[in-house]
Amino acid sequence: MDNAQQLVELANTTMPFGKHKGQLLLKIPERYLIWLIGQEIATGKLAVQLEEMMNIKLNGLESILEPLVRRAY
Asked: What pTM was estimated for this model as a whole?
């Protein structure tokens, strides 16, 4: 999978459990991402995506993902 595909997938990944279940990772508050990453609850691909999203948010780059979100109609 190339970087563009990974970004599209990241922009459209939803949280599978917890307080923000069903929300796009993009919309989850930084505080919750920091807490969740620190708890080491997520594993595998989701853990990697949470780290990537946290890095994007910490650097103020959410705007690069927003156009990639597939809108539900």
From this structure: 0.87
